[in-house]
Amino acid sequence: MRRSRSVARGASWPVALLAMASALAWSFAATTARAGCQIAVAGAGYMPHGLLVAALAPDQIRITFAGHASFMVESPEGVGVFTDYNGVVRPTRVPDIVTMNPMHSTHYTDFIEPEIKHVLRGWDPGGGVASHDIKYKDMRVRNVPTNLRDLGNGRLRNDNSILIMEAAGICVVYLSHTHHVLSPSQLQPIKDADVLLVPIDGTWTMSHDEAFHIIDQVKPRVVIPMHYGSTRALQTFIARATPLFPIREQGGDVAEFSLKTLPKPTEILFLETRFF
User: Fold this and answer.
1) Rounded to whole angstroms, how far apart are CA atoms 161 and 96?
2) Which fold has domain 15-39+46-270?
3) Which residue, 214, 207, 209, 159, is CA-closest to 182?
4) What pLDDT is stored for residue 164 in this prediction?
């Protein structure tokens, strides 16, 4: 894994991250409001968010935080899965597989590049229950249906999905826009998570109580926060996590993992982001 720096218990979180929080949130909102997720895709080039790095070893995966709720998860054979693909927060290359959820336009798009081989929507446009379990080269991706908050549009049950990505013997679980604690049947498929990607806004997705409850149930080796929401939510999450887990700041947007280098016990790993 790339070099990272630890945050001592009781220490203040790096000032740069907190200082950027409000500006990043405003920048992302302004971008989507000005261009619109649907418009921004047309003719838009990929925005580099990290340096190109060497090929992975057979036992490694790479996770790159593109921002907000979007990650690129890459396998040793170079398969790329990009979460909550929306046309604004972009990977450095065309992914092989993209996932989406329908809560906000910052989490999906109707404009899909033809080079993308698999589009996994976390909901069933026909009104049923989304069901995905695909294997592409050395990457397996499957979903666990969850619920959304009812905002008066009739969407609620089975309208979002947790994504499970497996490669190189490592299980990465992406909680997406889940709005509740998990039932036993939803929890069971993610119990083997090595890396858990968790929204920490505390309001728009799950509460911090719910987030920490799921972390405690799953006991992953690494928790990577996403979907920060606000400076206050970020500070609140860090304050609550500090007595419970080691917290590390990566100092970049990319982390590489193998089973032999995953930490024990659970630690929180913050990756840098351009979008809040």
Assistant:
1) 19
2) Metallo-beta-lactamase; Chain A (3.60.15)
3) 214
4) 95
